[in-house]
Design goal:
The complex is a heterodimer of chains A (103) and B (145).
Chain A: E1 2-9, E2 12-21, H1 26-36, E3 44-55, H2 57-73, E4 76-80, H3 84-92, E5 100-102
Parallel strand pairs in A: 2-3, 3-4, 4-5
Antiparallel strand pairs in A: 1-2
Helix pairs in contact in A: 1-2
Chain B: E1 2-5, H1 6-11, H2 14-21, H3 28-50, H4 61-69, H5 72-75, E2 78-86, E3 89-95, H6 114-122, E4 125-129, E5 134-140
Antiparallel strand pairs in B: 1-2, 2-3, 3-5, 4-5
Helix pairs in contact in B: 2-3, 3-6
The chains are: A alpha/beta (103), B alpha+beta (145).
Chain lengths: 103, 145
């Protein structure tokens, strides 16, 4: 399972994922989505993937749920620091067409 | 052949265990494709095959999985993985022991079939045989330079 941390800095919600982000993290990530709705004053959400080793289709699905939530909350969403296998999986899933992917 | 418990699949990295048993001469692209497809096939077999998790459980999947893993019937079902390398084609079969009828999804359902999309892009061929509840994947085998 993944370790999921959320912090707020300069009007930006930062979600840090590490380890393996899979379908088994769904309930944990749901709590993050709930937290996002209480993010008064925030204008952006950044997901830091630097320490993420693997993401599967369940993890991709949760990023799509996050995207929906950010659109609803009018937050600019970005995926940052993806590398290795995670970056390849994002490319294959064509997530660069759905998200702002920042190196 | 590998026999994994459903619990081991959902709590560990069984795809990497299978990878470590394959000839280590495979190139990085082949290794990546096999790892991603194996993971997806194993999770599908564990979640939707053995534990019979449906879309209606998606909003609370972790709790539902924990509950079903504790069910003596559902939680004890294994997943078998076999592989064969012949004529530069690696064939892998992942078989579950669920009892609920399953099939590969054909509709474009958001949040659901990304696994299938990933697998179709990475595997040379991909078929599901519902009669033996097995997904069969083929990969072009390339040796590392």
């Amino acid at each position: 399972m993944s370790k999921v941390e959320i912090t707020t800095q300069n009007n930006t919600k930062k979600i840090t994922l590490s380890g393996h982000f899979t379908a088994m993290d769904h309930d944990q990530f749901r709590a993050i989505l709930d937290d996002l709705q209480s993010g008064e004053g925030c204008t952006a959400c950044a997901v830091d993937l630097e320490h993420l080793e693997f993401i599967d289709s369940g993890g991709l699905g949760m990023l799509l749920l996050l995207r929906d939530a950010c659109i609803k909350q009018k937050l600019a969403l970005s995926l940052t620091n993806a590398k290795g296998d995670v970056l390849r999986i994002l490319d294959i899933a064509k997530f660069d067409q759905l998200f702002k992917v920042v190196g | 052949m590998f026999a994994f418990s459903t619990h081991a699949i959902l709590g560990g990295d069984c795809a990497t265990q299978v990878l470590s048993a394959l000839p280590q001469t495979m190139d990085q692209d082949t290794r990546f494709a096999v790892r991603v497809c194996l993971h997806e096939a194993l999770y599908n077999a564990a979640l939707h095959g053995n534990l019979e998790i449906d879309d209606i459980h998606r909003s609370c999947i972790t709790k539902e999985v924990e509950s079903r893993l504790n069910n003596p019937t559902l939680g004890s079902r294994p997943v078998y993985v076999t592989w064969e390398l012949m004529d530069q084609i690696l064939k892998i079969v992942v078989k579950d022991f669920g009892e609920k009828p399953v099939s590969l999804p054909t509709e474009d359902i958001p949040h659901r079939i990304h696994g299938l999309r990933l697998m179709r892009q990475l595997a040379r061929d991909l078929t599901f045989d519902p009669t033996i509840r097995a997904i069969k994947m083929g990969f072009c085998w390339k040796e590392a330079p």
